[in-house]
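Let's practice the habit of predicting before peeking. Look at the sequence and jot down your guess about where helices and strands might fall. Then scroll down.
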Amino acid sequence: MSEFHFDIEAGALCLDFANTAEWHASDQPLERLNDSADLVAWAVAAGILDEAQARATLDWAERSPDAAAEAFELAIWLRETVYRIFAAIALDITPDAEDLTGLNHVLSLAMARTRIEPVEGGFTWGWAGDLPGMVLISGSVARSAAELLTSDRLDRLRQCADDRGCGYLFVDTSRNGSRRWCSMKSCGNRAKAKRHYDRQVVDNN
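Done guessing? Here is the structure:
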């Protein structure tokens, strides 16, 4: 599986998935999911699949390459759909109706396979039957997107303000809701350095 370290810090599973294409708002996004193995590696990092499920999924993909390719294509299609929906909302634009229809289609398939399971101290979502790993991935992402869209956290949705097209989506959990960057170590630091440079130019003139 991929040895790339996936970022799982956006505040919602669906946003973590959308961010697997880096520089998503640019003309040349950097793809981090190039095959089924990369997708499974992300699912493990995100907590959707455990190691045993990951091995079983990769074994299935090797035995059924056509079905695996179709499932992988669906996952990438879902990622792009989710990205467009939430990027639009972050920019205060109404999402495209076709994107919402597409998400609802995957969501309806996922919800038909979900169930409520008891856990210590309450209940949680579970999956009915022994579903293939690829199905769990797309279903989990669709359910996460629906939960975020209908939550009171939606007004905290942000997109990195970098003007080069970073496009990173996240839920702003800062106390005053002022977070603007994917990270202060990358885009935030660049913006800070640029402001400092611009001030020096002004002062020197």
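How did you do? The chain has a mean pLDDT of 91.
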